């Protein structure tokens, strides 16, 4: 096994731990928030601020990696996860909404660091293989999709009377394991090409004249997919959280959704190689629209759960495809700057979805919120058509390296 393969697999494990925290927070944040928030509209505020922090930290963290290297910055991020777990536990035990907000702010800082795992996997990798590297690291979320809802539910059952307080300790445990794994990941350089990388990895695969719009398109695809996914995933916990056994139903629904988000990663990389980035991204937007149409009839599980599954697959194609496409639009020298801008925009759009989820749910309802995803998909498809035509006119295969 090469050092690059070892790096991808260990980063996939770290991705699984990071996403276990992220999924656990989705499973409990809105519910705990509804118990501690002083007013209903503040129910999803902690989860929304979690993403607001990611916006503020994304660019500085990326530039810090350029200065210090990825390993020390990733180790620093793991420490924030440990602090977030302890803070959340104490906040729920003490009934402190302010403490809950602080916990999610700390978790947001950890998420900022962990979001760069997928880019760390592409350092020094040839252009045609970067999509597969991003996809394989993202595939670590499959384990998170299985474990996180079960862990939060079991923690609530084992410590009945403490609500979800013990669920927050998952953050601390995951952070501690991540810290140890990161010490063993090989080749975590400052983001430049690895020594064994050839000249092909030194320049953008997309011609410079098209790289600007290509990067913007990649950011829109990943960001728009994340915004809609966050909005509807958070709202689904509110839509399903009514009546006896609703906690279990929410956990199962989120579990299926998250598995649908990450299971396609095992073949998304190959789809990107065979079909091209443009077609995979277009398929993601089509699935996004289909997800909205599937969930519109109502809040019954028969509508909400299939909608969440389609939403998960759509997110995968848009997020993995957009992230992989971005790596073709910049040189290694500009990697940290472009990746920092990308994650700031993607996290910003994700925060919009999270922050507005509660308010839009009370204002428009579940079905009304689903309608909002249709124009988002329409704009994305229109830009992809434009890119397809521009790429064809320039002799570039959509989202891939120019033919020699």
Automatic annotation (TrEMBL):
RNA-binding in keyword set: no
Transmembrane segment boundaries: 45-61, 73-92, 98-117, 129-148, 168-188, 209-229, 249-268, 280-297, 303-329, 341-364, 370-387
GO molecular function, one term: transmembrane transporter activity
Top-level taxon: Bacteria
Family matches, as InterPro entries: MFS, MFS_dom, MFS_trans_sf
Keywords on record: Membrane, Signal, Transmembrane, Transmembrane helix
Pfam families cross-referenced by the UniProt entry: MFS_1
Signal peptide: 1-24
Statement: the UniProt record of this protein carries the keyword Transmembrane helix: yes
Limits of the Major facilitator superfamily (MFS) profile domain: 207-404
Protein name: MFS transporter
């Amino acid at each position: 096994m090469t050092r690059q393969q070892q790096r991808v697999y260990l980063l996939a494990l770290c991705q699984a731990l990071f996403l276990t925290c992220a999924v656990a927070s989705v499973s409990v944040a809105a519910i705990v928030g509804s118990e501690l928030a002083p007013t209903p509209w503040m129910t999803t505020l902690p989860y929304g601020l979690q993403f607001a922090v990611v916006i503020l930290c994304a660019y500085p963290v990326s530039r810090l990696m350029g200065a210090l290297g990825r390993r020390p910055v990733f180790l620093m991020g793991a420490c924030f996860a440990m602090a977030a777990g302890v803070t959340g536990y104490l906040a729920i035990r003490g009934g402190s909404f302010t403490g809950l907000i602080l916990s999610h702010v700390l978790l947001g800082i950890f998420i900022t660091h962990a979001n760069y795992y997928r880019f760390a996997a592409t350092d020094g990798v040839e252009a045609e293989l970067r999509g597969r590297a991003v996809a394989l690291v993202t595939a670590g979320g499959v384990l998170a999709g299985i474990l996180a809802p079960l862990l939060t539910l079991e923690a609530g059952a084992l410590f009945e009377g403490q609500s979800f307080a013990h669920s927050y300790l998952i953050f601390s445990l995951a952070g501690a394991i991540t810290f140890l794994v990161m010490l063993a990941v090989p080749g975590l350089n400052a983001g430049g090409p690895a020594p064994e990388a050839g000249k092909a990895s030194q320049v953008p695969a997309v011609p410079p004249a098209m790289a600007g719009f290509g990067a913007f398109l990649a950011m829109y695809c990943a960001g728009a997919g994340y915004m809609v996914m966050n909005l509807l995933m958070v709202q689904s916990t509110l839509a399903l959280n009514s009546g006896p056994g609703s906690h279990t139903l929410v956990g199962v629904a989120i579990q299926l959704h998250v598995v649908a988000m990450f299971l396609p990663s095992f073949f998304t990389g190959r789809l990107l190689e065979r079909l091209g980035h443009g077609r995979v991204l277009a398929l993601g937007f089509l699935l996004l629209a289909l997800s909205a149409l599937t969930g519109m009839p109502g809040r019954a599980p028969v509508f909400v759960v299939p909608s969440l599954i389609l939403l998960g697959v759509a997110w995968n194609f848009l997020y993995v495809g957009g992230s992989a496409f971005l790596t073709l639009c910049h040189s290694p020298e500009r990697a940290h700057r472009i990746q920092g801008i990308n994650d700031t925009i993607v996290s910003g759009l994700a925060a919009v979805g999270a922050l507005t989820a509660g308010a839009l749910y009370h204002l428009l309802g579940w079905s009304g919120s689903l309608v909002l995803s249709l124009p988002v998909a329409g704009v994305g498809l229109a830009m992809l058509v434009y890119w397809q035509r521009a790429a064809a006119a320039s002799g570039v295969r959509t989202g891939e390296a120019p033919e020699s």
